[in-house]
Automatic annotation (TrEMBL):
Residues 16-242 form the Carbohydrate kinase FGGY N-terminal domain. Keywords: Kinase, Transferase. GO terms for molecular function: kinase activity. Gene3D superfamilies: 3.30.420.40. It holds the Pfam family FGGY_C. CDD domains: ASKHA_NBD_FGGY_BaXK-like. Residues 277-474 form the Carbohydrate kinase FGGY C-terminal domain. This is FGGY-family carbohydrate kinase. GO terms for biological process: carbohydrate metabolic process. InterPro entries: ATPase_NBD (IPR043129), FGGY_C (IPR018485), FGGY_Carb_Kinase (IPR050406), FGGY_N (IPR018484). It comes from the Bacteria.
Length: 533
């Protein structure tokens, strides 16, 4: 599409806007009718660790949402000389899970508790036993029940319980709704009714009946919507909240807000059965769309949903690239001290590619990038750690390789349950996120970990913001016969290309050898947590 046609599309509102609140960056993507990004806006932010809680403030949230949209609008002005006033549809996405509890006045009762917190162990265990269904510590219902166990006073005042993107959507539209993908990360969802599991809701209400709370669980949860459904429109207050400069008109329809796992599936065309995608950034998770139910309950594996409401096995690791990025930054600091100016992209490229020349098993080096707790390996806290024996092959290639391997170590622990115990089969794996930015490296490491070919699409860098923009477009333009997977396959991804890498046998064997050391060395990580207080 040439520039004049793009200008016409923007002026006439033949666009969709996706905004995703990630762990370290909020991203806004304006997409045209051909699913191509017209402009991108960004805002960097960081979670805070306050009173043993990983959190973001409401001010952080709105400063970030407004900042990413303002950056996008400025980019549109710069590129096309046009002021955005109308958009075909909007979608909001964010990190899944967490706990945002509001009273009847719409006031936040306690600081936002993000997915990163591992403080709900007793609640998670009790609810998993009660439901015979895995309830991870990140899930909203685990946070709620833990607050009840802790006898927190705010619980009696709860009027609405929601996740981050559902909160932003609520403030923009006035609608208390949530897409089924993230709804399934709040509380178990019934695949037949496409709604919260009524039997389990009744079980929970009976469990807490003696507490005398003035609410029932169903009353404080959002309404569940599936992809393609209408989820409200931008109110006058919402338009001013998103665009304080006042250029954006109210009345724009919004699609159901979705979690980053669901939008990642859309952005990688991974919503069909036997497909999988891995999103690797601050955290890492693999989504595997199931053909049938798993044989047993596994604490390491979440059962959630695609945005269309199909069951998905989700393996989620809290830690991925944070420690890896810290080491790359250290090398950058060294280069600067040597008066060598190195572009960040080149720094990553050189160090990541150096890893490929390392030993397949990392030469006996071991590291854990546990910035926070890690539920898959049963840690409530983490300590980044690097260790080696004196006779290990300590060189730069192995050093970088071990940090790439360990970024996927906890993930592989969970994936091994799916592939080796449950015999789940996947036909394709698509990767996206910062771990894959250096071409070919992250893919090769993931292919070794999963022993499966891995593809990265040309559009993978646009991530979940682009994915939620596609879901907004799906709501606007889907035909009655369009399922989400057919819509993606035949329309969005029909002409898009990607780079695929097959697993290398030596890499696969080397990763397995590394994992033996990784599993045995967890005792070292445990000691570090207990000692470094």
């Amino acid at each position: 599409m040439n520039k004049n046609l793009r200008i016409e599309a923007i002026n006439s509102g033949r666009t969709t806007l996706g905004i995703e609140l990630g762990s370290t960056r909020i991203k806004a993507v304006l997409m045209d009718e051909n699913y191509m990004p017209l402009a991108i806006g960004k805002h960097d932010w960081e979670n805070r660790y306050i009173d043993n809680i990983w959190t973001y403030t409401l001010e952080d949230i709105w400063e970030g949402v407004q900042g990413s949209y303002r950056d996008l609008a400025d980019e549109v002005e710069k590129q096309y000389g046009v002021t955005i006033s109308n958009i075909g549809a909007i979608g909001i996405s964010a990190m899944m899970h967490g706990y945002m509890a509001f009273n009847k006045a719409g006031e936040l009762l306690v600081p936002f508790r993000t997915w990163r917190n591992t403080i709900t162990g007793p609640a998670s265990d009790k609810l998993t036993e009660l439901f015979n269904f895995n309830i991870p510590q990140r899930w909203s219902i685990a946070h709620l029940y833990q607050a009840i166990l802790n006898k927190e006073e705010h619980v009696a005042e709860i009027d609405y319980l929601i996740t981050l993107e559902g909160y932003v959507h609520w403030k923009l539209t006035g609608e208390k709704v949530l897409g089924i993908g993230d709804a399934a990360g709040m509380f178990p969802v019934d695949v037949k009714t496409k709604d919260f599991n009524e039997t389990m809701i009744n079980q929970f209400d009976r469990l807490i009946a003696d507490k005398g709370f003035p609410w029932k669980l169903r009353d404080i949860l959002p309404k569940v919507l599936v992809a393609g459904e209408y989820a409200g429109k931008l109110t006058e207050e919402g338009a001013k909240l998103l665009d304080p400069r006042g250029n954006l008109k109210p009345g724009i329809p919004l699609c159901p807000p979705e979690g980053d796992a669901g939008t990642g599936m859309v952005a990688t065309n991974s919503v069909a059965k036997r497909s999988s995608n891995v999103s690797a950034g601050t955290s890492v998770f693999a989504m595997v769309v199931l053909e049938e139910d798993l044989k047993k309950v596994h604490k390491e594996i979440d059962i959630v949903m695609t945005p269309a409401g199909d069951p998905v096995a989700m393996v989620h690791s809290n830690n991925c690239t944070s420690d890896l990025n810290a080491w790359v930054s250290l090398f950058g600091e060294f280069a600067k001290a040597m008066n060598i100016e190195v572009d960040t992209t080149k720094l990553y490229s050189v160090l990541y590619n150096k890893a490929l020349s390392g030993d397949a098993d990392c030469g006996g080096l071991l590291s854990y990038g546990y910035y926070s707790g890690e539920h898959i390996t049963h840690f409530e806290e983490g300590r980044p750690l690097f260790v080696r024996k004196p006779d290990a092959k300590f060189n730069l290639a192995n050093f970088m390789r071990v940090h790439l391997y360990t970024a996927l170590g906890a993930l592989k622990t969970g994936l091994d349950i799916l592939f080796k115990e449950e015999k789940v089969v996947v036909d394709k794996v698509l990767g996206h996120g910062g771990f894959f930015k250096t071409e070919g490296v992250g893919q090769r490491i993931l292919a070794a970990a999963m022993n499966t070919p891995v593809t990265v699409m040309e559009t993978a860098g646009e991530g979940g913001a682009w994915g939620i923009a596609i879901l907004a477009d799906y709501m606007l333009h889907k035909k009655e016969e369009d399922t989400l997977d057919s819509y993606l396959e035949s329309r969005v991804f029909a002409d898009m290309k990607g780079l695929s890498i097959e697993p290398d046998k030596k890499d696969v064997e080397g990763f397995e050898q590394f994992m033996s050391l990784y599993t045995a060395g967890l005792a070292i990580e445990r000691s570090a947590v207990e000692t470094l207080i």
